[in-house]
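Duplicate of earlier report; cysteine synthase input re-posted below.
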Amino acid sequence: MGNLIDTIGNTPLVEIRGFHKNPDVRIFAKMEGNNPAGSVKDRAALNMIRSALERGEITKDTKLIEATSGNTGIALAMIASLYGLELELVMPSTSTRERTLTMEAYGAKVTLLESMEICRDYAEEKGATGGYFILNQFANPDNYGAHIKTTGPEIWRDTAGEITHFVSAMGTTGTIMGCSMFLKEKNPAIQIVGCQPTEESSIPGIRRWPKEYLPKIFDPSRVDRVIDIAQDDATRRARELVRREGIFAGMSTGGAFHAALQVADDIKEGLIVFIACDRGDRYLSSDLFG
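Output:
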């Protein structure tokens, strides 16, 4: 028995069997949609808020603000509600309605602006006034720290140390940074593979940042390979995952899966783990599954 926070993490690994023919290459999805707020961002949200409280940087009376494309915002809204904290989330107006409604259901205020870059500028400006505390997932070590503490160790444990390749979408880059730090410490030979959209693609949860907006927590030396993902491929793979494997997840998961399949084609043997970062129900008002 425990509280809701205790259910964050320890998500299952599910083997994907029907997409490649080499029996010496195995692909597993880390099912982060099983977290209580529905994504891998539950881990970072908890670590950022709880660590800030423990350090005395925020109190119960602090107003929080954060720019988000969706999943982090939902996770922060859940954690803030559990700690009784006031929270404003700033999100691109192109985000699905499900995301806004979910954040508001947890009690967060939602502000919609034109683009993610404008959202980040707005949050940083309000944070600089002193009236708000910006968690700043793009520069906060507690973001990747969550994955050093939890995600990386779980993958290492559940693969019995046999993982050879780790694949993740890159947004804030917290997941790939933290998992890289932990897994490379265990075995430097493990290959860390990130994916980003092609220049012309838009994939929720995966970003190709302009240089001036590149997350400060990102260290390119911790990623062995970056694969560009086309929007059509991310969409197609998300649809295939739900229809052929029963894994109901979003476009960023489709993108990571597409990258994992590329890795599988390039190796003769190995164990690949990719992050299935959220649930597909928050995309139902879009054309993703249409």
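The chain has a mean pLDDT of 94.

Merging into the original ticket.
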